[in-house]
Amino acid sequence: MVLHGPNLNLLGKREPGVYGVVTLDEINQALEKEAQSLGFEIATAQSNHEGALVDLIHDAMGRHAGILINPGAYTHTSVAIRDAIAGVNLPAVEVHLSNIHKREEFRHHSYIAPVAIGQICGFGAESYRLGLQALVHYLRQNM
Ligand code: CA2
Question: Cα–Cα distance between 70 and 55 in angstroms, integer?
């Protein structure tokens, strides 16, 4: 299950200098292709709402083998998303387009990182592909 958090629907349409020119649809299409080549199927979803993301994480239980998530700004604020990931007990990989560790101080802390199997950030849209590869690698070792 691939989840995108708040404002990521604007990708490629606003602030290309910060977040690049690739749109969310293009990222999802590239992930679908990558998943296919790895022998997996993915579902993708985006929401600007914290509770909706929590519901999507709960819905993944029993339907998906793992979660690839860019929680957007909720990375730095959401105990609810962290608890949802911990609660469903599915392996999750946290990804970010930007390198959150070299940006403003408030972006350095992630509530999600301690419940994720790992975090990939700073590679633009490529972070998602690397994150999917990492998740599939983990699933192959642990399924
Ligand atoms: O680097 C990332 O992927 C982030 O998750 C992006 C979030 C930010 O709050 C995190 O600290 C790091 C922001 C996403 C905003 O996306 C936009 C895209 C185009 C125009 C405006 C916002």
Answer: 15
Residue type, 107: R
Write out pLDDT tens, residues 20-55: 899 999 999 999 999 999 999 999 999 999 999 999
Q: Are 127 and 95 in contact (CB under 8 A)?
A: yes
CA distance to 29, 55, 113, 142, per residue, from 83 (Å): 29, 12, 12, 22
Q: Ligand 1 pocket test: which of 9, 19, 48, 102 has the largest number of ligand atoms within 8 Å of its C-beta?
A: 19
**Among 4, 64, 74, 96, which one carries the catalytic annotation?**
96
Q: Whose CA is nearest to atom 4 of ligand 1?
A: 72
The pTM of the full predicted model, rounded to 2 decimals, is 0.98
**Dist CA 54 CA 35 (whole Å):** 24
